[in-house]
Specification:
Elements (H helix, E strand, L loop, with lengths): L1 E5 L8 H8 L5 H22 L12 E6 L4 E6 L6 H9 L5 H9 L14 H4 L5 E9 L8 E5 L4 E6 L6 E8 L1 H4 L5 H11 L7 E14 L5 E11 L16 H11 L8 E7 L5 E7 L6 H4 L3 E5 L2 E4 L14 E5 L16 H24 L1 H6 L1 H14 L1 H7 L5 E2 L5 E2 L1 H8 L10 E6 L6 H8 L5 E3 L5 H11 L3 E5 L5 H4 L12 H15 L4 E6 L8 E4 L2 H11 L15 E6 L3 H8 L3 H18 L5 H16 L1
């Protein structure tokens, strides 16, 4: 048997296109060829299952080998195999999918969802690294003759009689050492197999490994050991996500997480995905312990298609806010482009996206209802996912508002409804708005927190990386509710109840105090006012208006539209407490120089309480304090 001919294609020469454009990374060739070998093996198992193949299956593992001296890489299987006619149909006519005919022929005899294309464009990825490719195959059909196909990367091919004596296929790559010598390296090939073939459903052998085994006892009845050669099986054919959740323990899930992310902390909890209608989807998603840097957490979800690794760029399949999760998603219904490297958006992707969102919301809701206290202990990590979702997904917000928590500076947790009940009476202003007070840096804002606590007001802790954005969302969603940073104004203005406090200073003294502090401060970006505050409040209170505070917070936490705020100087309001004894003492001082010194000192104390006193101004304050103490 000998035949020569031209490959049937729709372009003069498809190989340059394959090499340059079809695959972005040449290492993909091994994934495609090993996947094809696995497909051929699974087809044979299916035929045996429905009685179409009655022979012995035997050892069905796929084997990858290489010969550095001969410059050859070989991928072998004991699967369905091919006749010469099969090769002409499935290899030469690459526009025709071998899977299509196979599925059509056997669709009523088995689960066609488990069949994917045997050959086709995936096979031609071999020419990215090979200057010549051979196929040596023997079909499973009784009486078949072995066939050999050879092609040197042009459109010409040759088919001759093969010499394979066992059912299956060898793909032999004669590596182009000028471009692809790196692939004639054991560690390089092992790395590719680990990356793409780690969970293929058929055992994949790559060479051998040493294993220490027990070999009898010594004279002291202690075990002896010897080193033996064992097949180096690179994959786990039955990964955790393919099993029933009912058959798995917590330790199984934790062990699998360690297998995926060997250097990570243990996850908080996980979700096992398993749906077969209206699309097929399996997988396990883990909630990790989240760090402050959100970007470092992303792209940790691995996408598989029938246990073949595709990519960790899953932004179209998984909602943006759940990119912080870790784990595995496997779906044959996610459409991939011809190279299987990139996702293509369609209705199934949108359905899967919505399904995953719903499963996450249901899991969080169950955790909250099952054990509120335990849920609260995890909130510092869970909260980032929840807030991210509520910011980016309207439907998720509607679900999450029942299990989202607000934490106050005392470490107490409240649902949205609980916190409204807690504050709606005491923290309502003259216009009927409920005012939620919050702190972004409780330690630095301690003086302001204590000031509002004197009125029995509560203060929320909003110090997370998303909280500056989350505040705006809460105001938008909650009726007649405003959020104000605790150091954005004096306590009576934060929640204006239209209650007047009498001033111990006359109008004339108030004006003198205003002029004195303006002169002492001498800052065009600070606005001084003299206000009638409680006598136990600070003598001087420096605040930044809520609008500017919020814009600055958003800019610091990545609010792109707020970058222009960096061009504006900080604006501060300086409230001089007309009822504080120190202010009266300053005004009564006989020396003008002493008045200015004490006024500046009171102002610097206010800056110091917020960590705003730095550099030369801090040094001057220290020296001035020493001088005042010595008098």
């Amino acid at each position: 048997m000998q035949e020569k001919g031209n490959i049937s294609i729709h372009t003069e020469n498809i190989f340059p296109i394959i090499k340059k454009f079809l695959y972005s990374d040449h290492e993909i060739f091994l994934r495609e060829l090993v996947s094809n070998a696995v497909d051929a093996t699974q087809k044979l198992k299916q035929l045996a299952g429905i009685g179409e193949f009655k022979g012995e299956l035997g050892d069905l593992k796929v084997e990858v080998s290489f010969d550095k001296e001969a410059k050859i890489i070989t991928i072998s299987d004991r699967g369905i195999g091919m006749t010469a006619d099969d090769i002409k149909k499935y290899i030469n006519q690459i526009a025709f999918s071998g899977a299509t005919e196979f599925v059509e022929k056997y669709k009523d005899k088995g689960d066609e969802q488990q069949i994917i294309g045997h050959f086709g464009l995936g096979f031609y990825s071999a020419f990215m690294v090979a200057e010549k490719v051979e196929i040596n195959s023997l079909s499973h059909v009784e009486g078949s003759q072995p066939a050999r196909w050879i092609c040197d990367g042009s459109t010409e091919f040759e088919i001759t009689a093969g010499d394979r004596t066992e059912r299956g296929t060898d793909i032999i790559l004669h590596v182009n050492t000028e471009d692809s010598e790196e692939f004639l390296n054991e560690s390089r090939l092992q790395g590719i197999l680990d990356k793409y073939c780690k969970f293929l459903p058929v055992a994949v052998k790559f060479g051998e490994r040493d294993e220490r085994v027990e070999d009898g006892k010594d004279d002291e009845d202690k075990p002896k050991y010897k080193t033996v050669k064992k097949d180096n099986i690179v994959n786990n054919p039955v990964p955790l996500w393919t099993k029933s959740p009912a058959d798995l323990t917590d330790e199984d899930y934790l062990s699998f997480y360690r297998e995926l992310y060997p250097f990570s902390e243990e996850p908080l909890f996980w979700i096992h995905l398993n749906v077969d209608y209206p699309f097929n989807l399996t997988g396990i998603l883990y909630f990790p312990k989240v760090k402050k840097d959100i970007e470092l957490q992303k792209n940790k979800i691995q996408l598989y298609s029938r246990q073949v690794f595709i990519t960790d760029e899953v932004k179209d399949v998984v909602p943006e806010f759940l990119m912080l999760l870790h784990g595995v998603i496997d779906s044959p219904d996610i459409p991939l482009n011809v190279s299987r490297s990139f996702l293509q958006a369609d209705s199934n992707v949108k359905k899967i996206n919505s399904y995953i969102t719903k499963k996450v919301a249901d899991k969080l809701s169950d955790l909250y209802k099952k054990d509120r206290k335990e849920y609260e202990t995890k909130w510092s990590d869970i909260g980032l996912f929840v807030k991210y979702g509520m910011l980016s997904d309207e439907k998720f917000y509607d679900k999450a508002k029942d299990f989202a928590l607000l934490e106050n500076v005392d470490g107490q947790y409240f649902t949205f409804d609980e916190y409204k009940t807690k504050t709606e009476t005491l923290q309502k202003d003259k216009d009927g708005n409920i005012i939620y007070l919050y702190a972004t840096e409780p330690a630095k804002q301690h003086a302001f927190i204590q000031s509002v606590k004197k009125k029995s007001y509560d203060v929320l802790k909003m110090d997370g990386p998303l909280d500056s954005h989350f505040i705006g969302t809460l105001e938008h969603k909650m009726d007649k509710t405003q959020l104000k940073r605790v150091d954005a104004d004096t306590v009576d203005k934060l929640i204006d109840k239209d209650e007047k406090i009498e001033s111990v200073l006359s109008d004339s003294d108030k004006e003198k105090a205003k002029e004195l502090f303006e002169k002492s401060i001498n800052d065009k970006n600070s606005t001084v006012s003299v206000e009638s505050l409680a006598a136990d409040e600070m003598p001087v209170i420096v605040t930044m208006p809520e609008f500017m505070r919020r814009m600055k917070d958003m800019q610091r936490n990545g609010g792109g539209g707020m970058m222009m705020m960096g061009d504006f100087p900080d604006q501060y309001n300086v409230a001089v407490n007309a009822n504080h004894p120190l202010v009266s003492k300053i005004l009564k001082s006989k020396k003008e120089e002493n008045k200015e010194t004490l006024a500046r000192q009171a102002y610097d104390l206010a800056l110091l309480s917020q960590g705003l006193l730095v550099g030369e101004a801090l040094t001057q304050f220290i020296n001035r304090s020493i001088e005042i103490s010595a008098e």
